[in-house]
Each structure stands twice: as C-alpha cells, then as structure tokens.
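Supplementary Methods, section 5.1.

A reviewer requested that the exact input to the structure prediction be made available. We therefore reproduce it here, unchanged from the version used in the analyses.
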Amino acid sequence: YVDVSGEIPWSLRLMDLHKQAKEAKVSICPSSAVAGGYPDLLVYLASKALQEQFGEETRKATCYCFGGGASAASSGGTLATRAAMSSSSDEVRKAMADPFSLGGFIPDIDRHGFKEAKITQGTGHVTLKTRKEDGDAVLSKVTQDPTYGFFRGPHVYAYFDNRIVRRSNMLLADISNQPYGRELCFQEFAIIPPDVLMNINAQAAKGSSSAADEQAALMADGKYYAPGDGPPLE
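The structure derived from this sequence is encoded token-by-token as follows.
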C-alpha cells in the first residue's frame, strides 16, 4: 500500500495494521511523497553516509525547504482536509498535538547520564521529560540558523515530517538495531529570503486566518484549485 498522505489521523489508523503487515511481509507506505517521504529519505541517505564515512550515528538532522511562488497555492482538497482536522474530536486533536504520536520518543538525559522524569504526587505516575528541542514550539518560530546565518521559519509540513522521521528512526532501531541515531533530533524549517522578512512581520501583525479565509483569498486571486485540479503547466 503506497499513498501520498500527509495527515496524522490517517497515519494513526494505518499504524493499527503494522503487526499484520509485518507478519504478512508487506509494506505500508502512507507518506511516500513531499510530506514525510522526502525528508525521511534525505535523513536516511545522510545518516548512512555519516555511518559509512565516520562510523558515527546521527545526533541532529535539520531539513531546509525553499520554494513556493504563485503556482504553489493550496488545493481545495488540502484546505478541506485542514478544515476537517480542525473540527476533529478531542482525541484526534490531542494526537495531532503530540510530537510523539507516531512513536520514537527519546527522553531527556541530565548531565549525569540519568533520564529525567516527573513523578506525580499521590499516584506515583512517572512521566519522562521531553527534550525541548523535540517540541513543536521550536518549529513555529522565526529564528536565525546558528551555523549558516540565514533566517528560517515554520514550514507547512514540518510538524508532520518530524513525526515520520521519528517513527522511521524507531522502526529501524526495533527491527534492525540500526537507527539513524539513538539520540536523534530532527527539525525542519523553511528558508526565508532576507527581502521578505518585513513582509512576514506585517502579515503576522494581522493575525492568523482560518481555512475559510484562505479559501476566499485564493478564490479572489484566481488561485483556488478544486480537488484534482491545479495550476497551468506554464
């Protein structure tokens, strides 16, 4: 089964088939295109080269995306999906907000090498501390790359892609004992050209818009595409 899905709820439904697929020796690939597929493939190739050349696991992988333009408008299907997910049940919304909804959790380790945990008073319930670098909040900010100096910001697929890469890392560890990295941190951003930073700040000042608002704006510009349609080839 091969799909081009970029949706957490659908991925969670397919995860229920993992055991049966493994026993039947078949593959389920729900995200084999831009969403999930490309970043995961890039991390695989980079970590493979790092292991072969230096014998080291990957500690951190950062994916940068650059593109867009007038022809990169969202389709009607994409907007419809976003609108549907925004009105989903509390259970689905909670899963979408969980950075580890597809697995691959890596606990925070203190300077002494111990896993940090929170113990709830009264119940004794233990919750391992999440590393700050794995949180979605890191992906939602405009920051400057500490190594290359360019500015980066949120990318539309970043929240989905990091969950896919974490799951792949987990499966590689569980099945072959060869993960990308036992302490892997994956992040994804969009590269922001310097000349558009002021425009982004101006748009942010206006506040966020709903899927309906975006649809109306796209229709007004003649860039709203129904499911199955798209921009002209030229």
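The CA atoms of residues 33 and 56 lie 28 Å apart. These observations are discussed further in the main text.
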